[in-house]
Amino acid sequence: MQFRFNIWHKGSSGLTTFSLPSPEWITRRDNHHLINRVSSTVLSLSILFIFLALICSCNAMAPEIHLPDSIQGLPLRQKISGKEAEKMLERMHNKDVAPGKNVIGVYQAGPHRTILYASSFPTRGKALDRLEEMSKEIGSGSSGFENHIQFEVNKNIIHQVTGYGQLHYFFAVDKFLYWLSVDYPLAHGSLAELLGVSIDDIPSSDNSQ
Fold it and tell me: Considering only CA atoms, which of 93, 152, 85 is closest in space to residue 119?
């Protein structure tokens, strides 16, 4: 529908007619533009949310690792982290290290020296998977460690081996994987301290004497 306007020109015998679009057409046109703008905005926001979700999922970080200041009275003398720790662990495992964060703590006083290797993973499942891999590697007998046994403490599976003059424990707690190398006299107490349990909760074995 259109509106028609007749304008009389003085001194002229004719009429000039102008036609204007109806209000309904104007409304439809404006609504169409508004819908387009809203649709574009919604699409842009959707893309933004998807992009942010992808960033968050790709940047799912492993938790920070906090080493104790001392273990069984041995103070923390050296802390190695970042790329340097990663390279050391890769040399130990002869493979790339999967976790996002790695820290090595060296504890020493007098004749005793304890080393705690710690890695963190995005999920507990990944930490347990790596623990299982390490257990199989140790069990193959090609690692230089011997007398591999395992036991449970506070619902955590603890692996124990001997080698290089020390006792070694490796285990997973939450999203963290630990390897503890410790002198025999401090072994049970060190493991109990890390697990937050009594020393009586650590089973004895012929290899830990």
Answer: 85
